[in-house]
Structure formats: C-alpha cells, structure tokens
Amino acid sequence: MKATISKRGFLQAVGAAVGVGAVYRSMQALGLVSTEVAHEVWADLPRGSGEGKSVAILGAGIAGMTAAYELSKAGYRCTILEAADRAGGRNLTARAGDVVGEVDGRQRVNFSEGDHLYANLGPARIPYHHGTILGYCKEFGVGLEVFTNDNRAALFHNRERFDGRPVSARRVITDIRGYIAELLAKAVDGTSLDSALTVEDKERLLQMLVQYGDLNADHLYKGTKRGGYRDGRLNAGLKAGELDDPLDFSDLLKSDFWEYKLHFDDFLDQNPTLLQPVGGMDTIAKAFEERVGSFVRYRSVVEEIRKSPKGVRIVYRSGLGGAVGTLDADFAICSIPAPVLKDIQNDFAPETKAAIESVAFAPAIKIAFQTRRRFWEEDHAIYGGISWTDQDITQIWYPPYGYHRDNGVIVGAYVWNKDIGLRFEGMSPEERLRVAIEEGERVHPGYAGEIEAGVSRAWGKVPFQKGAWPTGKEAPAALQRPDGAIYFAGDQASALPGWQEGAALAAHAAVAAINERVMGK
Amino acid sequence: MKATISKRGFLQAVGAAVGVGAVYRSMQALGLVSTEVAHEVWADLPRGSGEGKSVAILGAGIAGMTAAYELSKAGYRCTILEAADRAGGRNLTARAGDVVGEVDGRQRVNFSEGDHLYANLGPARIPYHHGTILGYCKEFGVGLEVFTNDNRAALFHNRERFDGRPVSARRVITDIRGYIAELLAKAVDGTSLDSALTVEDKERLLQMLVQYGDLNADHLYKGTKRGGYRDGRLNAGLKAGELDDPLDFSDLLKSDFWEYKLHFDDFLDQNPTLLQPVGGMDTIAKAFEERVGSFVRYRSVVEEIRKSPKGVRIVYRSGLGGAVGTLDADFAICSIPAPVLKDIQNDFAPETKAAIESVAFAPAIKIAFQTRRRFWEEDHAIYGGISWTDQDITQIWYPPYGYHRDNGVIVGAYVWNKDIGLRFEGMSPEERLRVAIEEGERVHPGYAGEIEAGVSRAWGKVPFQKGAWPTGKEAPAALQRPDGAIYFAGDQASALPGWQEGAALAAHAAVAAINERVMGK
Q1: Which segment of A266-270, A440-444, B223-227 scores lowest on mean pLDDT?
Q2: I want to staple B120 with a disulfide (CB 3.0 to 4.6 A). Which of A246, A357, B281, B496 is the partner?
C-alpha cells in the first residue's frame, strides 16, 4: 500500500493547496490519469472549502449526483432539482413491477420476480479504463462482474447471405482472418511487397501469417479447427473430428459482417475487460442516491434558469400543475440534456444557447424480453455476448449474468441508427415488441414461443431526456466553460457521449472549476 | 420448456431402450452433441439397469466421480479407490491453511482467509462448448462466472524488444492488424492479387481492410484510437486526445508476440465465453463428492490390477505401510494417470501396456501469489486476463474474481513448456517463488514489494499424478476400449487432454460401454 499512499498523498497535498483541477493537471503531467490511478476517485476537494456556499444542481443523474457528492463532502450546500420521481437519469434498470414512461404512455414491466430478471435499458457496460465510475464502484462497494461483448458462439446474421442462416462469430472471425492471411502471404510470396519489407521481415511476416490465419504448408487457408469441426461438433471430444469447410470468402465480403461488427470489441470503449455491477446498472445510481438523496427534490421540473446578483435563480414547478418554487444559489451545475434544456427559459449568453441548440441526441431504442428458458445457453451454448443481424433490431444481447438459471431476460433489440430508431419510436409499445419478436425469429427459430414478457425504451420519447446520448464526439466549447455562475455537466459536456464516465468527468470538471473560483476569492 | 422436454424425452426413451451409447450416437446423428444440448447431461442410464453389478473405480478425480455418479444412479454398486486423502485429482484449489504435497515435500498455503483468496492450481477455465462439465454445473447448482483470457489492458513483454518494457495487448493487437491491413491493401491496390480476386471482391476487400485495420484515406496505417491516446490516456475523457504512434512493425515482427499469444483466444478451447465456478474450480469436485463421497475409500493406493473369473480384482494398500485390501468387482474403470498406472502390477494385454507406456504427461507448473493490494487493477486497470512474457514464468494471470477487493491472488507463473517445467520442478519451493518474483518484477516494477505469500505446484512431482496432462492430442486406441472387464477413463482416454470435459466424456463412454454389455447379457 505504501507506494500508492505516497502518490495519493502527494496528489491530495496538491489538491489541498490549489484545488482539484490542479490535481487533475498534475496527474496528467505525471501520466497517471486513467492508468496509474485508474480507479482512484481524484475529485477530493479540500474539506470545508465550500462552507457557506450553495450550489443548485439540475438533474439527479450520474453527473448531478457525482457533483453533489463531491461538493457536499467539501461543505457546499447542495440542492438537486430532479424532474422525474426517481434518481439515475438514463441509468435505468427495469425489473418486475416497474413502470417506464414515455411522453404518450406508460409500460408496466411484466417480468417475474428474480434477482437475475432485469434489463439495463440505459448504460449496460463499464470499460476497464472508465476509472472514475469504477472508482465510485470501489468506494461505494458496488460489486462488479464481467460484461461480455465478444462471444464466439454468438451469431452473425444477414438475410441475403449464407441462405439467410446465422453463422457463428467463431467461423466468421477465423475464416476472414484465414483469407486475409492467405492473400497477404500470396502477395509476400510474390514480389509485389518487396519494396515495403526487408528480406528478414518478409520471412518473419510469412511465419506470422501462417499462425495468424492458421494457413497450411502451402500458405493456403483451408479452414481451421479454431472454427470447430464438421457436423456441428464444437470440440474434439473423444476423438478429434474433421475440419469444417470455411465459409465462402466472396460471400463474407458481400455480407455486412465486416462493417464494424467483426472488430466491435476492438473499439476502445468496447474492449475487454468490460464490467457491470452485479444485480443491475442502477446499483450505481442507488449507491449515489443513498449518499445524496437527501439533497434531491424529486418531481421538480425546471422552468427558468436565471442569472442573479447572488449567482443563479432557478424557477421550478413541483410536479404537473404543482406549485412554483424558487431556488437561489451561488452556483448552478446544469446536467439537463440539451434537447430538454434548449426549451427552458434562460439567461444564457448567445454562444451558450447556440451550443445547446447544436447538440442532437440519438433516438436509441432498447427492447428487453423475459424468456421462459435460457434457450441461448441450452440450445446454442451462448453464454452472454451479442448476436448481430441486418434487420432493424440490429443486436440481440444474451444476459452475462444468471447463467444456468431457469429463465432470463435478453435484449431483443438495441438500435442506435437514427432512421431505425425513429421507426421504432413511432410504433406503439405492442408493435415494437411484435416487430422485435418477428425479426428475432429469423435469428433464433422458435424465438416467439420462448418469450413471456417484453418492454421497450425509446429514449427519444422519454420525458426530461428526449434522447439517449449526444451524437457528436466532442462537447461544444461553450458547454465546457461556465456561463456566469452556471456550469454544465453530463456526458454532453464531455468527449465520452453516452457513457457514465463522461457524465462523472464533466461533473468533476465543474466541481473543480467552482472550487477554484471559490478558493481564489 | 416444451421443445426441450420433448427432445430430451425422445433421447431418454432411446436411452432406456438401448443404453447411453445409443443415445450418444442418436445425438450425433441429430447433430445435437455439444450444440443443441450443449449442457444437457446425456449419460442417463436406465434406472435399475445396473442392479446386482459392481464396479471398482480407480481414482476419485472428475472421471472417477462422474462414472460413479452415473453408474450408481442406475443401480450399480460402486467403490472408488483414491490414493490421496481428498477427491478431485487435478481439480485443485488452494486456500488458506491447505497443505499441498509433492514427492519430496509439502507446502503450507499461507494465504489469508477470504472467499476471493484462492488459486485454481489445476484446471481454471471451462470453455462454453464443454457441455458435459457445464451440464453437471447446472445439475449440481454450481454457480458460474466469466473467466477472462482476452484483456486488452494486459501486457506483452519481451526482454529484447521495446526496450524490454511491457506493451499493452491493445496496442499489439491493433497495430499488428493495422500493418497487415495496410500491406494487403497495398497488394490489392497494385495488381499482384488481380488473378485471385474479382474486381467486385477487390473493391469490397479494400473497404473491409480500411475498417479492419483502421486505415487512413490513403490506405495507410498511422495508428488508431482503438489503441489509446498519447501520454498514456486510455479514453477521450473531457476532450479527445491525439493518436499515439503505432509500435514499430519490424520490432513487432522480431518479437514473439505473434507466436500464438496474439490469437490465443481464437483457439477453440480458449475462445470466449470461458466460464469458471464461483468460489473456485473445486466447487465442481466438491459437488461430485457430496454425491459419491460415500463410495470413496481414501488413502487407498492401488498396487495390483488383476483380471479375475468374476471380472476384476484390485489389490490396494490403505495409506503408507497400511493394511492390504482386496476389491473384487464385475468391472473396473481405471482413471489412474498413465505415468502412475504404468508402474502398477497388472494383467493388461501387451497393447494396453504399450499404450499406457506411450502416454507422456506434461510437467506443467503453476505458481500463485497473494498480494497486499490489487496493483494490477489499481495501477493498470487490468481486470482479469493474462500478461505474457518471454521469461520462464510465461504468464501472469490476474484473478477474474474479487474485483476491487483489498487484496488478491494472482498466478505468477503458468508453464507448460517441458524444459522450463523441468527447470522449475528441479527447484525447491522457495527457489521457485524467488525466480517467479524476480521475473515478475520485470513485467511489473515493484512486484516483489506487493507479494505476501506464495505456493507452487509442479505437477510432475505430485504423488499419484506425475504430470499435468497427456501431451498427445488423441488417446491411444487401447485406452478407448476395454481390456477384459477393465475400462479406461480420464482425459487420457479422450481427445481433450488436460480438460475436465475429456475426463467426464471418457467416463461417460466407459459407463455407456459397461451398461451396453450388461444390458446385452
């Protein structure tokens, strides 16, 4: 422990002297951010530094609660205004008896009771390098388990290829690599790459390609036992079987399998190891709520955000048609999603208004089904992971928890494409389920007969959210600096749109900036 | 559930009529083995079919206990002779206070108490397609969680390359793929592959390669954010950073990273999803022992295996210098590892003796360390997975369980190379730990200071085992058929050496063959 304590001690000393922003910069300079202290929570404000100061926090999602947690520890008086009757924002786990609402209706979650019968309808995974959120998990004692993206038993499905039959990820990945290795070996064996490679590297590259693609002695790809054996046998068993024929390369090229699906887990945010809280993603939201819930005024819909001589004045209404309230504070941290924020009366500067207007949110969709048995495990040896289809449902997720239980909850559609999202958004909840079942049936014949209950979430139609995440990759500059005493947070103020890490980091940045201002006074 | 029940019902009906071997063949014919009924336990012998028959089972490992479990359910009278004082065989989990023995000494496991402080010194993972073992896990209620092979935060280390500094799997994998894609694109952009590809496929292949390797518009690989950002930043955070420079291709080619390590998780047996029992691999052995422990005579060292008019006669000694006992039975199932079996007096046919002599076992080594903190998670965001080094320790495994706890147990060496294994085998336990710490220090500077306790297991020196697994890929034919009334089991009688699945499958085969013989009488 000693090495860490001294490093952390140093950073705490810097923090006490100059504030958390300086700590963050020190850590960056030391190359520590996200690696050396991957899950240390670094926003430790000096104790008492906020005494006598008040902060109005708009939104009790991950950003708002993170800000309240850090500020209140330093003595700031925090009030969180939350429009909904629950905390967590887009961090949402559906369980038996829950009611999930959209602007024009409500769905009751008809799952059975069971600690494995839930669906994370918002964020569902935490990349290993999201050290801020992981740090809070550690600090709050939120148990973690592995979330599985890459399951070679899962399926790739394209209606136009391979007679419309799903093929295993295992076959697609090994066969494509085999062909790539064969073609490159052919080129290297010839002379066309001689100018690009030394003789020595050429020899080593050939050796590598033979292993990379499992090529034969003639540098040809004729299938590999990495893909499994003939007749659907998946392992050698008592006597090793024969290699199966590889999939046709031209068909693979004509499929959409290689369009990001093939290397999905190579994207930094989808890289293994991915983690998830045991028991549902909302375990994190609940852990925050336990600590800052007393600061939250639920069903408090913000109607005006004003600059005031003191700092900020927030006008809000308590529930539908309820009383109007006013909250004055020295500062505000606003995590209200841009599509909602843009319609709230405000005193923002023109650049701020323009920035808010510029942020579009994705109309993402998730549909979850409870099934009467875990047919994916029982019939296909699929333990967690994702199947892909070229149909609108896009993906089927098998739960990476509750293995071998009697039943389970799968994600029957996860859509982020705008056109498809809007198509589902326009349907009634019943129609969404019907379509998702019909499409799922083409991936898993018999699917319809397995399903017992379903729920959908069209984020574009969720009150006080109006979307799943900002579609841009970077936040507008105006959302990363204060407008008067008003600071912005949420994933929309980070370069990690759609990730809780972005929400928490932006909250840290806002908290640090407020504290520097206070301490500088 | 209906679809399964009827399928299973059909198979049980076949089983009742003609025995489990027929069921297995029916399942093969139906293409069901290992896929459709991936985790159904299929060795359901007809009830009562073994009444009045006795079986001597030699060895209470996974094979012996599987055989006893299935036979006893069918009415066979089973006796298991186990040389050690525990069941499980190579299925071994080390915990605080355990004593693990080798031929010339004993080590006490000095770990602290804690449900996350254990090391699986034998098998540690279960591939998703090992349906027999997974079936028993389901039947016995053994909880499962994910075992992680592929962790992109884990390290590749070669003393001769990259200044001897470990580099992340993420960088190695993305950079090698980038270069491969670039080189192949160069060849395709030229004319050298024109004869191998249609114009249409050529165009699609180029599009694929751009995605596969994340090539730029000129089809060059200049690094990818899949590998992370400059200055050790692992995610975009508040503002996306700059791409880091890729590793030098020539250095990558000169390293040993691409020698099976690069595609380790593509091997069928190492494919995700891998599973492990919650709480340690011996949970499986204990679940079997709960069911068949009453049949086991512990500390019963077999000294003679004889053919008798009744069937078999086994002579054994109860413990060291203990009394000699005799066990007569209609049949025997022998799962004693070949290196031990070959020295036991027997009446085997010459081909059987030759087969047993021919099976060599690997002198594999595992070394486990308890550490004072989880430095891999705290300092490197490594959650489970494996780092590779060209040093003798070969691998460091980070525990895929107990995330974020205060301390943990890592595997500090996992060696299967014969020469290296024998080198470690020849050392004292203290010397093994010293070497493993010294080498680990080169992968993780500060390693030595983190370690609190260690234990090693040199399987070649374990009494009644004399090795970790058969080095051949297929079992000799003579071990897959009976010699008189003596049947063979264990992984050595399967084409899955080193896997519990092979042990259980071979046990099923022996059980099925005995039952067919009995029912045929």
Answers
A1: B223-227
A2: B281
- What are the tokens at B58? 């030699």
Neighbours of A262 (CB within 10 A): 22
Is A184's CB within 8 Å of B187's CB?
Answer: yes
Q: Rounded mean pLDDT of A116-137?
A: 97
Query: In this complex, is the C-beta atom of B116 within 8 Å of any C-beta atom belonging to chain A?
Result: no
Q: Among A403, A125, A239, A182, which Cα is nearest to B476's?
A: A239
Do residue A192 and residue B192 have CB atoms under 8 angstroms apart?
A: yes
Domains defined along chain A, listed by start = 1-37 (no CATH), 44-88+282-359+472-520 (3.50.50.60), 93-153+271-280+362-461 (3.90.660.10), 169-255 (1.20.1440.240)
Q: Percentage helix, strand, coil, to 5, in chain B?
A: 40, 20, 40
- The predicted pLDDT at position A26 comes to 42
Under an 8 A CB cutoff, do A204 and B267 touch? no
Residue B431: CB atoms within 10 Å: 12
Using CB atoms within 10 Å of the CB of residue A308, give its burial: 0 to 12 exposed, 13 to 18 middle, 19+ buried.
Answer: middle
Chain A residue closest to B451 (CA)?
A1
pTM above 0.90, yes or no: yes
Please report residues of B whose CB lies closer than 8 A to that of A33: 232-233, 237
Distance CA B417, CA B393 (A): 10
Strand partners, B81: B58, B297
CA distance, residue B4 to nearest chain A CA (Å): 9
Nearest-Å Rg of the Cα atoms of chain A is: 26
Residue A293 class from Cβ within 10 Å (0-12 exposed, 13-18 middle, 19+ buried)?
A: middle
Q: Which of B33, B183, B267 sits opposite A193 (nearest CB)?
A: B183
- Judging contacts by C-beta atoms under 8 Å, the chain A residues touching residue B249 are 201
Q: Indicate the Cα dihedral angle A497, A501, A507, A513, nearest 10°.
A: -90
Q: Give the residue on A whose Cα is nearest the Cα of B502.
A: A237
Q: Provide the mean pLDDT of chain A.
A: 91
Q: B146 vs A225: CB contact, 8 Å cut-off?
A: no
The closest of B247, B159, B178 to B443, measured between CA atoms, is B159
Taking only residues 348 to 367 of chain A, the set having a beta carbon closer than 8 angstroms to any beta carbon of chain B reads none
Token reading at A49: 């530094």
pLDDT score, position A7: 38
**What is the ipTM score, two decimals?**
0.92
Measure B161 CA to nearest chain A CA, in Å: 15
Average pLDDT on A139-165 reads 97
Q: Which residue of A has its CA nearest to B253?
A: A204
